[in-house]
């Protein structure tokens, strides 16, 4: 979900807003099913359209079509909008496959996992972390459940994924909706075969359903559907394709649809998000990755995880970090050809043996930061071992080269091993784990000579190293909520950081990737196990039951900044309910009727909320209710209106929660209602948009335990600043130069640049004539204007990311629109200024004072 988009100068020559859309491409939702009739009507009315995708799968969920508008003018769009059968016309928006954060790929699958993925099958760390191993032990495996995976396709030729595609196989249904050449912008060319050429989808599929002798998925016997929505390489995907894929998967009878795809949004109004909501309402649950934009801080929810009814999934780090190493051998005395693993870096050690020199200073391998010890002698033709740390890899390489050693094996000073790059001429480097280094130090202590042998074609091996720094806590990259409408995302989190899974055979067969992309299929697999059990019991399950079950059985985690645990629990805004507990999810004998208590901001504050507890067990139970607090997180940096990048500032100031009653006796099969009254935390700086949260803990006789997450925003969001005025924006500038005043743009195109400190449901840019005041005949709240820039007002804008290149731009092309939806007209020569407005959060579209306003310098248009 990497965003590198606002920079494109889409807006320069066309009036379209420079954002993540396909210029000229639209989705239209129509009444009835006659999409061909719609296209024909366009053509006979002189609107040239080229068909992209038909978006109805004989269901009543969504009927429409996507098309390219050859003349993408406000006139043509206005014409289409005026037709009675048109429900909504919206641009095709682009989304990305959630880009993996870290990536190690094996070179050869044949010798895989001789040290396994971290232990025997039944204590594979991610499965232990989420409680899946206990369900496997009970015989649950997902058999009979169909999960549709919307992704880059699946390499079903992988032996761990069944070997074949089609009915009766593990990957039994699905299709390629786009063809290999699709890049998001061009027209999709569907074909039958959903084979993966990119990798992401195969990794996702393996997390759900791989079966290998040393590695199995969460629900190894489910049937998968592969809906390929990316080309090769995978670039991005239009929401028309995503809508089509979701509709197709629903029509194909999937029990669950999962997508590790998204993009910054935070609004539920995108057509894809709306379709997800309708599919969920019709009974098919959807799990969607919460996003990998944790670096952006709070209020950065991703679409369509933010869709109402979707299950948004965050990422927790694996307790063990599997590393993919290349195999080599060492010999010393009686030890003959013992295997070890290393990560290759710059250069290659060839297929060759070396004498290994391990300079030990004060019992430790030298870091060589002050050069290598004098007594190592000439190292020409030998391999020298140097400890990582204190100084740069470059200076270590230089120290080795100074003694004639062109082959350097670094020993990591933290668990695992990483790929190292150096530029020292002729020097090749690799890295081994601290364990391998320690083994060599021991041999040196015994005065044994060591030799190492490398093979350029050596196999990959997987080693699993503990991750004491951040294992078992939220991944730093996992996106934070809440949404712009104060709904919490993610709902639930699952192992997604440092996950080993299947990868296309052409790329080596296995890979370690990180992302909410990896956490989402984990939760999909857990749902598969739940549905299998419910089916066996003859029970029909609603999506709401799944959401409630997942969140209320989640386990809250302490906050971790990437290197160390805090003493307090991570904010609900980051972790949602916490890590999934698959065992409790499936075995809980108590249920409630709410997934999350969202108290909203101070203006829309719900002073009390209630929920119902139901005892599904066969004995009377006594429930005791208490509150557990999570940290309160500030959205903005101190003294700023802009969000603080990860980690946000956090305070241990908690809401006061009154629970009535806080002790209940409930008979089997009966329910009772509980009221929660909340007083917001004290002593907070409301201007920094504090987001508080915690859990209502429901414990019964030590048997069952549920926790309902709650959260709220301790400020009035309609007072929070939406326009970023801190970094020199908004800015009206010359097309050619950032510094030239707008006035020098006579005859060229002034460009307006802006950045949003928070999401804004409506952004308007209106034009005021300075030289001819009488021409200002269009009132816009307090301003008399001549009209709006074409393409404005623009709706459902996400917060602008904080990177230096991330900015919104639009050019003034001398045209305006008098009234929304009408054709544009030319303005006469004269002096003008632009009035930029952004609607505040929770603001009302038609109320002027709910907007922030900024006015440009006058500029001359000739
Ligand atoms: C940090 O917290 C997580 C989650 O509770 C736990 O799994 C992990 O072991 C802790 N790490 C340390 C170093 O205490
Ligand atoms: C919070 O209040 C706003 C304004 O009424 C509303 O649009 C939004 O849906 C509310 N959010 C939640 C989570 O209830
Ligand atoms: C631009 O032109 C307007 C109108 O001629 C003038 O009032 C304004 O001072 C000029 N601004 C700059 C930056 O030169």
Automatic annotation (TrEMBL):
<keyword id="KW-0378">Hydrolase</keyword>
<feature type="signal peptide">
    <location>
        <begin position="1"/>
        <end position="18"/>
    </location>
</feature>
<dbReference type="InterPro" id="IPR022398">
    <property type="entry name" value="Peptidase_S8_His-AS"/>
</dbReference>
<dbReference type="InterPro" id="IPR050131">
    <property type="entry name" value="Peptidase_S8_subtilisin-like"/>
</dbReference>
<keyword id="KW-0645">Protease</keyword>
<keyword id="KW-0134">Cell wall</keyword>
<dbReference type="GO" id="GO:0004252">
    <property type="term" value="F:serine-type endopeptidase activity"/>
</dbReference>
<dbReference type="InterPro" id="IPR023827">
    <property type="entry name" value="Peptidase_S8_Asp-AS"/>
</dbReference>
<keyword id="KW-0720">Serine protease</keyword>
<dbReference type="InterPro" id="IPR010435">
    <property type="entry name" value="C5a/SBT2-like_Fn3"/>
</dbReference>
<dbReference type="Pfam" id="PF00082">
    <property type="entry name" value="Peptidase_S8"/>
</dbReference>
<dbReference type="InterPro" id="IPR015500">
    <property type="entry name" value="Peptidase_S8_subtilisin-rel"/>
</dbReference>
<dbReference type="InterPro" id="IPR046450">
    <property type="entry name" value="PA_dom_sf"/>
</dbReference>
<feature type="active site" description="Charge relay system">
    <location>
        <position position="517"/>
    </location>
</feature>
<dbReference type="InterPro" id="IPR036852">
    <property type="entry name" value="Peptidase_S8/S53_dom_sf"/>
</dbReference>
<feature type="active site" description="Charge relay system">
    <location>
        <position position="151"/>
    </location>
</feature>
<dbReference type="InterPro" id="IPR034187">
    <property type="entry name" value="Peptidases_S8_5"/>
</dbReference>
<feature type="domain" description="Peptidase S8/S53">
    <location>
        <begin position="142"/>
        <end position="554"/>
    </location>
</feature>
<dbReference type="InterPro" id="IPR000209">
    <property type="entry name" value="Peptidase_S8/S53_dom"/>
</dbReference>
<dbReference type="Pfam" id="PF02225">
    <property type="entry name" value="PA"/>
</dbReference>
<keyword id="KW-0732">Signal</keyword>
<feature type="active site" description="Charge relay system">
    <location>
        <position position="200"/>
    </location>
</feature>
<protein>
    <recommendedName>
        <fullName>Minor extracellular protease vpr</fullName>
    </recommendedName>
</protein>
<keyword id="KW-0964">Secreted</keyword>
<dbReference type="InterPro" id="IPR003137">
    <property type="entry name" value="PA_domain"/>
</dbReference>
<dbReference type="Pfam" id="PF06280">
    <property type="entry name" value="fn3_5"/>
</dbReference>
<dbReference type="GO" id="GO:0016020">
    <property type="term" value="C:membrane"/>
</dbReference>
<comment type="similarity">
    <text>Belongs to the peptidase S8 family.</text>
</comment>
<dbReference type="GO" id="GO:0006508">
    <property type="term" value="P:proteolysis"/>
</dbReference>
<dbReference type="InterPro" id="IPR023828">
    <property type="entry name" value="Peptidase_S8_Ser-AS"/>
</dbReference>
<feature type="domain" description="PA">
    <location>
        <begin position="354"/>
        <end position="438"/>
    </location>
</feature>
<feature type="domain" description="C5a peptidase/Subtilisin-like protease SBT2-like Fn3-like">
    <location>
        <begin position="598"/>
        <end position="711"/>
    </location>
</feature>
């Amino acid at each position: 979900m990497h965003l590198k988009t606002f920079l494109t100068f889409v807006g320069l020559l066309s009036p379209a807003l420079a954002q993540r859309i396909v210029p000229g491409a639209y989705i239209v939702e129509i009444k009835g099913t006659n999409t061909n009739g719609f296209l024909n009507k366009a053509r006979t009315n002189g609107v040239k359209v080229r068909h992209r995708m038909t978006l109805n799968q004989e269901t009543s969920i969504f009927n429409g079509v996507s098309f390219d508008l050859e003349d993408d003018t406000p006139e043509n769009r206005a014409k289409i909008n005026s037709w009675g059968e048109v429900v909504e016309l919206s641009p095709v928006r682009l989304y990305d496959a959630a880009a993996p954060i870290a990536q190690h790929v094996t070179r050869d699958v044949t010798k895989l996992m001789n040290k396994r993925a971290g232990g025997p099958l039944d204590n594979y760390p991610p499965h232990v972390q989420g409680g899946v191993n206990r369900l496997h032990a009970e015989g649950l495996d997902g058999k009979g459940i169909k999960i549709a995976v919307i992704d880059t396709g699946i390499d079903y030729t992988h032996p761990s994924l069944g070997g074949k595609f089609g009915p009766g196989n593990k990957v039994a249904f699905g299709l390629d909706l786009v063809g290999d050449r699709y890049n998001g912008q061009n027209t999709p060319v569907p074909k039958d075969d959903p084979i993966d050429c990119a990798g992401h989808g195969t990794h996702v599929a393996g997390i759900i359903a791989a079966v290998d002798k040393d590695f199995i998925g969460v629900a190894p016997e489910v049937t998968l559907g592969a809906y390929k929505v990316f080309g090769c390489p995978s670039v991005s995907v239009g929401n028309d394709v995503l809508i089509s894929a979701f509709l197709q998967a629903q029509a194909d009878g999937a029990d669950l649809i999962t997508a590790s795809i998204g993009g910054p949004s935070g609004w539920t109004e995108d057509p894809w998000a709306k379709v997800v909501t309708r599919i969920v309402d019709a009974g098919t649950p959807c799990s969607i990755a919460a996003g990998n934009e944790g670096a952006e801080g709070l209020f950065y929810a991703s679409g369509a995880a933010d869709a109402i009814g979707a299950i948004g999934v965050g990422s927790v780090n694996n307790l063990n970090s599997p590393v993919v190493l290349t195999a080599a051998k060492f010999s010393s005395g009686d030890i003959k050809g013992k295997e070890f693993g290393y990560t290759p870096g710059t250069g290659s050690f060839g297929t060759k043996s070396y004498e290994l020199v391990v300079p030990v200073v004060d019992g430790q391998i030298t870091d060589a930061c002050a050069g290598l010890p004098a007594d190592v002698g000439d190292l020409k033709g030998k391999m020298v071992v140097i400890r990582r740390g204190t100084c740069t890899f470059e200076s270590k390489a230089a120290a080795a080269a100074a003694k004639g050693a062109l082959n350097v094996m670094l020993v990591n000073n933290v668990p695992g091993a990483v790929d190292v790059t150096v530029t020292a001429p002729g020097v090749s480097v690799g890295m081994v784990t601290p364990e391998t280094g320690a083994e060599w130090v021991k041999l040196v202590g015994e005065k044994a000579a060591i030799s190492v042998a490398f093979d350029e074609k050596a196999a990959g091996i997987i080693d699993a190293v503990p991750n004491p720094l951040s294992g078992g806590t939220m991944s730093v990259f996992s996106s934070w909520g809440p949404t712009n409408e104060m709904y919490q995302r993610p709902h639930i989190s699952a192992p997604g950081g440092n996950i080993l899974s299947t990868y296309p055979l052409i790329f080596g067969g296995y890979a370690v990737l990180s992302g909410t992309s990896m956490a989402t299929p984990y939760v999909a697999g857990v749902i598969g196990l739940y549905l299998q059990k419910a089916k066996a019991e003859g029970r029909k399950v609603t999506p709401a039951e799944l959401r409630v079950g997942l969140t209320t059985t989640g386990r809250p985690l302490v906050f971790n900044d990437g290197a160390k645990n805090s003493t307090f629990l991570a904010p609900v805004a980051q972790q949602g309910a916490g890590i999934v507990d698959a065992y409790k999810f499936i075995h809980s004998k108590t249920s409630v009727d709410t997934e999350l208590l969202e108290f909203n901001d101070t203006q829309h504050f719900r002073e009390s909320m209630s929920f119902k507890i139901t005892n599904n067990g066969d004995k009377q139970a006594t429930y005791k209710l208490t509150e557990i607090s999570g940290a309160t997180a500030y959205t903005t940096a101190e003294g700023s209106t802009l969000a603080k990048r990860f980690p946000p500032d956090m305070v241990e100031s908690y809401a006061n929660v009154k629970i009535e009653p806080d002790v209940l006796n409930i008979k089997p099969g009966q329910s009772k209602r509980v009221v929660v009254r909340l007083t917001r935390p004290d002593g907070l700086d409301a201007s920094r948009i504090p987001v508080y949260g915690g859990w209502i803990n429901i414990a019964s006789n030590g048997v069952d335990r549920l926790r309902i997450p709650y959260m709220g925003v301790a400020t009035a969001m309609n007072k929070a600043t939406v326009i970023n005025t801190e970094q020199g924006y908004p800015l009206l500038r010359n097309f050619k130069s950032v510094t030239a005043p707008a006035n020098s743009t006579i005859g060229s195109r002034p460009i307006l640049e802006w950045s949003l400190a928070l999401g804004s449901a409506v952004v308007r840019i209106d034009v005021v004539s300075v030289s001819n005041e009488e021409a200002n005949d269009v009132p816009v709240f307090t301003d008399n204007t001549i009209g709006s820039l074409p393409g404005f007002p623009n709706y459902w804008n996400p917060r602008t990311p904080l990177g230096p290149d991330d900015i919104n731009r639009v050019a003034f092309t001398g045209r305006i629109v008098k009234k929304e939806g009408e054709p544009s007209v030319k303005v006469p020569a004269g002096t003008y200024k632009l009035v930029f407005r952004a609607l505040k959060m929770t603001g009302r579209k038609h109320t002027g004072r709910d907007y922030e306003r900024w006015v440009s310098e006058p500029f001359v248009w000739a």
